[in-house]
Amino acid sequence: MKLRDQxxxxxxxxxxxxxxxxxxxxxxxxxCAFLIxxxxxxxxxxxxxxxxxxxxxxxxQIDVHGxxxxxxxxxxxxxxxxxxxxxxxxxxxxxxxxxxxQQEGTYSIGKYQEGTPTFVTNFPAEIKAGFELSEGTFPKxxxxxxxxxxxxxNLADKDAGEDLYDEKGQVKAEYLYKGKLRGKEIKLxxxxxxxxxxxxxxxxxxxxxxxxxxxxxxxQDSSVFISDEMLTEIERFTGTPKGYMLDANTNKxxxxxxxxxxxxxxxxxxxxxxxxxxxxxxxxxxxxxxxxSVVNELKEVNMVxxxxxxxxxxxxxxxxxxxxxxxxxxxxxxxxxxxxxxxxMKAIGASPKTIKRIFLLESSYIGLxxxxxxxVVSYGISxxxxxxxxxxxxxxxxxxxxxxLIFSDIPPILPIICIVICYSVTIISGLRPAQRxxxxxxxxxxxxxx
Amino acid sequence: MITIKSLSHDFVIGKKGRQTIIPVLxxxxxxxxxxxxxxxxxxxxxxxxxxxxxxxxxxxPKEGEIWISGEKVSDLNETKFADFRxxxxxxxxxxxxxxxxxxxxxxxxxPLILKGINEKERKVQTEQMLQxxxxxxxxxxxxxxxxxxxxxxxxxxxxxxxNPPIILADEPTGSLDSETEEELLxxxxxxxxxxxxxxxxxTHDDKVANIGNRKIxxxxxxxxxxxxx
Lengths: 450, 229
Ligand SMILES: Nc1ncnc2c1ncn2[C@@H]1O[C@H](COP(=O)(O)OP(=O)(O)O)[C@@H](O)[C@H]1O
Ligand SMILES: [Mg+2]
Fold this sequence. Notes:
The complex is a heterodimer.
Chain A: H1 3-16, H2 18-56, E1 61-68, E2 75-76, H3 80-88, E3 92-100, E4 105-109, E5 112-116, E6 118-121, H4 123-128, E7 133-136, E8 144-147, E9 156-157, E10 185-194, E11 197-211, E12 224-226, H5 228-238, H6 255-259, E13 266-271, H7 274-286, E14 289-293, H8 294-347, H9 352-397, H10 413-438, H11 442-446
Parallel strand pairs in A: 6-12, 8-11
Antiparallel strand pairs in A: 1-2, 1-13, 1-14, 3-6, 3-13, 4-5, 4-10, 5-9, 7-11, 8-12, 10-11
Chain B: E1 2-13, E2 20-32, E3 37-42, H1 48-56, E4 63-68, E5 71-72, H2 78-88, E6 89-93, H3 104-115, H4 119-132, H5 148-160, E7 166-170, H6 178-195, E8 198-202, H7 206-209, E9 214-219, E10 222-228
Parallel strand pairs in B: 3-8, 3-9, 6-7, 7-8
Antiparallel strand pairs in B: 1-2, 1-4, 4-5, 9-10
Helix pairs in contact in B: 3-4, 3-5, 4-5
């Protein structure tokens, strides 16, 4: 018997009891839609989180925090030797390294002042990693400095007091320094305790360069970059490595700072592309460096979502299993009703295999139509949910939701998973009725005794 | 064409532990030659239908052999017998056994569908066959919309459509009035003469019994008499 004819047969048979078949398809479609929509929440949230992660930092960036020493679990800061090792790794674009002044320097122009982190950095490496100036030049001499773009947005009137910030926590425009910054003299004040008394030193510096405005909010940078020689001068004043500010009571420099005087506080490797991040991270891990990159984070996030999605799909499968009881019922009734016809077909020479195939075809037909309808419906629901939930939240709580949040996402793999599950389930539930159809006794059927 | 060797059969009824064995056929042996019409007669309950059902493969014999067209069909399994049936045997039943939800055309076409013939070919052959039994204009009627005689002609058309060399018939005239019975007998004779189709016909009607070349009488499950007509 040709497949085409089997199909026609099945369609004819299904027409005989439209309502019953329709209800069965409906139940299957509901099961499938339930599965897809449920799992789509997992996919959607994962997509949101991954998007968030990859947008929050430079994805090719690998932070290296230190190297594990012979003592397990202890890490030492990185030095020039480590930097050299990193630079020799394959697909490394740049290795930026910064030493950080171990106290917050206070910078001031007239009555405007600001406290901000101070670094010594290697500019060629920074430039290769994408550091750019919006105006001016990179510092060349001891008293020249470059500042991050947001240095300007924090340099404010020191007398403003309470009134300085607006409700969003930003400095009010009226108190901001509005003059030109480049070429201006700016005073750095550093402090130290000597014999239980705080002493201060003010160093005049000249701003020669300002970095470009960052495109992302999280990339705000108000750091000041001073020269190596300036750090040495500061150290001479404080009498401690990297200008460490002593505790008024103990007067002691921590041991590890003393030992790692020339170590870097902030080392970042920039890979040539996203793909090599994983490989570079692995190589570093092998060499006992503690690293952190977007890959690590994504790995964990994806793992969690993997489990969540599997759980959701499992719950959805239960809905399909319940729908399959309907299919089993429908098929069993169909076999019973059609037993006389089956008997006649067998009498004139239909083989049990053909009979079985027709019934399996019918149950899988119901399953597939159900799955397809379910898929279409779930796309509709998913779309509606993404559209409606932010509105509902806005209505209910009167606040805008994070626009990036995707509540429901249906990647192509999801309908495929659903159809495979649904198809398998319907085949299994149709198997017994189909088997029963082959067992119909010809003589009983012809006597209408079944 | 059909050879039956020492065929015996009995039915077991009742539940396990309290079973009764009903002997139906005892040591039946006979042969039907190619091109013959052989009729089997006997009183009701003598085992005629059981014999034909064994030959048709609807039940499996307890003892003995059945050969059809050189094939030992009593050894075939269900699937193989189905194949054999559709290629070698045509059936005419007392109660026609048409599928009520299918039109005359679809009922006649059914064996061709099962054989996997393509649609175009099927249409040609089915229409030809309906023409032959004089029911072409009734092709879209459902069995319920046809008279007994017409239904029987549809069932004959269905039996003939695959050109079987043998036709087995159990009380073919049992549900027909005497006029349509005459017509049917005439048609059977024609098919036998023109197409050389072999017939094995079961009946308890003398008129039918005498259309054949030979008549076998069953009595209490045994062959009581075999006479040339
Ligand atoms: N399926 C069956 N189960 C039990 N007994 C049966 C069955 N079929 C037929 N018989 C018995 O076998 C005997 C012969 O029946 P059957 O072959 O139909 O006779 P006939 O066709 O000559 O009237 C009867 O006594 C009948 O009761
Ligand atoms: Mg009988």
